[in-house]
Amino acid sequence: MALTAIILLCFAALLPFPGLGERDHSGELKTFPVKVIVINDRSEKISYSTTVTEGWTMFGALNELQDSNSSFKFTSTNDKHYGIFLESVNGLPGSKKDNTYWQLLSQKPGGDITPLEVGMGCYQPQEYENLILEFTKYHPKRDLFHHDL
Ligand code: B12
C-alpha cells in the first residue's frame, strides 16, 4: 500500500503541468497605476487615475475605473471579429451617421502619443501609461482602406 502511494506520488511529480508553479501562477502579479485621459467633443480633457493588475486588458482597466469612480462611465459593443469596441464615454456615443468614434491612444512615460493598433479587449496597459480616449471624426472613404490616425 505504502509502495503504491510512493509510486503514485513520483508519477504525479513527473506529470507535465507547464506554467503551474512558475511566476505567472504564483499569485504574485504586480499592480500599478495608469491614467485614463478623456478628450470629449468640446476638446475638454478630464484625467482619471486607476490601478491595474499586470496582464489585465484595457477593458479591465476601464471597468476598474468605472467601478471606483462614479464620474467615469463607458459602454462597449462586441464585434464578432475584432472583439470589444468602445461605444460611448461619459454618455457621449460615437456615431456612424456623424462619422465619429472614440479613438484609443497611448502615451508611455517619456514617449509620444500613439494610436493603439488593436482594440481595448486585446491591449494590455503598462506601468504609468496614459490611456487616452479621444472623441474623433473620421473620413469615411479614406478610413475604409486604412487608418489615418
Ligand atoms: C473603417 C474602420 C474603422 C472605422 C469603423 C466605422 C465605420 N462606420 O466604418 C473606425 C474609424 C470607427 C475604426 C475605429 C477603430 N479601429 Co478600425 N478599421 C476600419 C477598417 C479600415 C475597415 C472596417 C470595415 O469597414 N470593414 C468592412 C465592413 C463591411 O465589415 P464590418 O465587420 O461590418 O466592419 C466593422 C468592424 O470592422 C468595426 N471596427 C472597425 N475597427 C474596429 C476596431 C475594433 C477594435 C473593433 C472591435 C471593431 C472595429 O467597424 C466596422 C463597421 O461597423 C479596418 C481594416 C480593414 N481594412 O478591414 C480597421 C480595423 C478593423 N480597425 C482597427 C483598429 C485597431 C481600430 C481602433 C482600435 C483604432 C484606435 N486606435 O482607436 C478603433 C476602434 C476604437 C474603439 N472605439 O474601440 C484594426 C483592428 C486590429 C485588431 N486586431 O484589433 C483594423 C484591422 C485596422 C488595422 N489593421 O490596424 N475603424
Explain the overall architecture:
By secondary structure, the protein is of the alpha+beta class. The chain has a single domain, classed as Ferric Hydroxamate Uptake Protein, Chain A, domain 1, CATH 2.170.130. It is 19% helix and 35% strand. The chain has 3 helices and 8 strands. It has helices spanning 2-14, 58-68, 140-143, and strands spanning 31-39, 45-53, 74-79, 83-89, 92-93, 100-107, 113-115, 130-137. The strands form 2 sheets. It has a 5-stranded mixed β-sheet with strand order 2-1-8-6-7, with helices on one face. Strands 3-4-5 form a 3-stranded antiparallel β-sheet, with helices on one face. It is globular and about 50 Å long. The termini are far apart. Bound molecules: cobalamin. Cobalamin (B12) is lined by residues 79, 81-86, 96, 101-104, 115-120, 122, 138, 143-144, 147, 149.
